[in-house]
Design goal:
This protein is mostly helical. It is 79% helix and 0% strand.
């Protein structure tokens, strides 16, 4: 008797639901940040750790999750990860101090690091390379980017109508539902012919190194970039990251098989994702603070202000599938990043007394469409030419690039913005009034958006320089066949 085959599109719905929950949690707290700050007494400089505590742990352990998915089974790890993520969400909702919340966010990140690569590996092994996988990855990319945008809306609704703990409580029923569906419908798979353990030491060293590096960047605002504290922290981070790379060359079963970067499609797509995520995370963070602290929006109104962003991302993702078939995946990716950079440039001109329709929305929508056009091509490029045994590793690398790029970008841009604001205030020579404080704050946002645009353009340049047309032949050939048909 032949085994029953699950509808692959149902599998896509299930893994997409879990991925939506994981990605949504990277931004759902942004609109709730002012409320959390008042409730748990976070300092302005420590507030970003609510975001980076999650993204750094998420990014640092993603490669471990990808490797473990290949070895122990993608379905099994997917379910374990959802369980851990849901339990950590419950802990965060009941957090009574800043330390407990940051620790819980880190635990959430670990759960997400197990879920996300396992989910993408399930998808890439369920859909054969070709037109159906392109369509499935288009949906996946829209979910991944759209989750970030919807997080801002949902965070505003839950914070305004209930209270900030509900931005975490909402994950619990969703996680339970996804686990039940996965047990019933998601097929199990694992890499064949692959043996050995998982590189826990590598995961710990890279995560610790990145946490110390981000702390050094953030602390440099008060300690100074050339202070002994900053230099010492940077040195510790360098040693930890150096240990990670040594482990990858010495261990029989490393976290990352460095030889995979000989594939230009892998190297180029991950470098591009690193820079793209840095600009995107900063946009959500600073724009959500701008609408509340400068324009005076309530959390609910702030969330609603980002609703059109979701539509722009979905529209861009859908358009990208059509354009890939006509002009090629590489050209669409470069165009998407360039359009997103234009959106950030528009946002870099938002005034203190700005309006939503005239000043904020044009930049947000341009950025959103650009992101939709970007993520489908990058995901396709990052997963093409990859053997089934490396599906978990490739998906883990891409997600790692996104999360670590976002965390490092947010740390750098937050520091630059804070420095700009401090300099503007110090030039006054007296205590600022409300209008002067708002002007100084917005000047910092301008710097962050400008640097974000530069990062986007850098991603486009790197993709164009590293990925050649012959590196994406499989993707473009499928598009040409589809057009001929």
């Amino acid at each position: 008797m032949e085994p029953r085959r699950t509808n692959p599109w149902l599998v896509l719905v299930i893994v997409g639901l879990a991925q939506f929950m994981v990605i949504l949690d990277a931004t759902i707290v942004n609109v709730a940040l002012p409320s959390i700050q008042r409730s748990l007494h976070f300092s302005p400089s420590s507030l970003q750790w609510i975001v980076n505590g999650y993204t750094l742990t998420f990014g640092g352990f993603l490669m471990l999750g990808g490797r473990a998915a290949d070895l122990v089974g993608r379905k099994r790890l997917f379910i374990i990860g959802i369980g851990l993520f849901s339990a950590a969400s419950l802990l965060n909702g009941f957090a009574g101090s800043a330390g407990v919340l940051v620790a819980g966010r880190a635990l959430q990140g670990l759960g997400g690091a197990l879920v996300s690569p396992a989910a993408l590996a399930v998808l890439t092994t369920t859909f054969a390379e070709g037109r159906e996988r392109t369509a499935a990855l288009g949906v996946w990319s829209a979910v991944a980017v759209g989750g970030g945008a919807v997080g801002l809306l949902l965070g505003g609704i839950l914070t305004d109508l209930f209270s900030w703990p509900w931005v975490f409580f909402v994950n619990v029923p969703v996680g339970i539902f996804a686990m039940l569906l996965a047990v019933r419908f998601v097929p199990e798979s694992r890499a064949t012919g692959v043996r050995g353990g998982v590189d826990i030491a590598g995961a710990i060293s890279i995560t610790a190194g990145l946490v110390v590096l981000v702390y050094a960047i953030v602390n440099a605002q008060s300690a100074g970039w050339l202070s002994l504290t900053t230099i010492g922290l940077a040195a510790i981070a360098g040693v930890l990251l150096g240990i990670f790379f040594v482990l990858q060359t010495r261990l029989r079963n490393p976290l990352i098989r460095l030889g995979i970067f000989r594939m230009r499609s892998i190297t180029g797509s991950n470098l591009a994702m690193l820079f793209v995520a840095a600009g995107m995370f900063a946009m959500f963070f600073f724009a959500s603070i701008y609408v509340q602290e400068v324009l005076g929006y309530s959390p609910l109104t702030a969330g609603l202000a980002f609703l059109p962003v979701t539509a722009g991302i979905v529209a861009g993702a859908g358009l990208s599938q059509q354009l890939i078939r006509r002009v090629g995946v590489r050209a669409v990716g470069i165009a998407g990043m360039s359009i997103a950079a234009v959106g950030l440039l528009v946002l870099s001109r938002v005034p203190v007394a700005g309006t939503y329709l005239g000043d904020l929305l044009p930049g947000l929508m341009t950025m959103a469409v650009g992101m939709g056009l970007t993520f489908v091509p990058i995901t396709l490029i990052a997963t093409t030419n990859v053997e089934s045994s490396d599906a978990g590793l490739a998906s883990g690398l891409l997600n790692t690039s996104q999360q670590l790029g976002g965390a490092l970008g947010l740390a750098v841009l937050s520091t630059l913005a804070a420095n700009s604001t401090s300099n503007a205030l110090s030039k006054l020579g007296h205590a600022p009034n409300v209008a002067q404080s708002a002007t100084a704050l917005v000047s910092g946002f301008h710097v962050a958006f400008l640097v974000g645009a530069f990062l986007m353009l850098s991603g486009a340049a790197l993709l164009g320089a590293t990925v050649r047309r012959r590196d994406v032949t499989k993707i473009d050939t499928v598009g040409e066949v589809a057009l001929a048909a």
